[in-house]
Amino acid sequence: MYIAIELLVLVLFLIVIWPNIKNEEWKEKFIDNKLARSILIIFVIILLFSLGIGLFFDIFFPVERLDVIQK
Question: Which residues cross the membrane (predicted)?
């Protein structure tokens, strides 16, 4: 459930900033610049790691409701 919320927020964030992304000259700023490209790769790796850890804990350690009597 939380992964879906994280992905929804990510999509909403991209929708909000899309006009700014579209108007930039990305190739000159980020692809040709090796330092900027490395930083972008690290940010993507951190994003994937965060989503992966969240998915792992959602699957293997689900949240248990404490207000429900278990029999």
Answer: 39-61
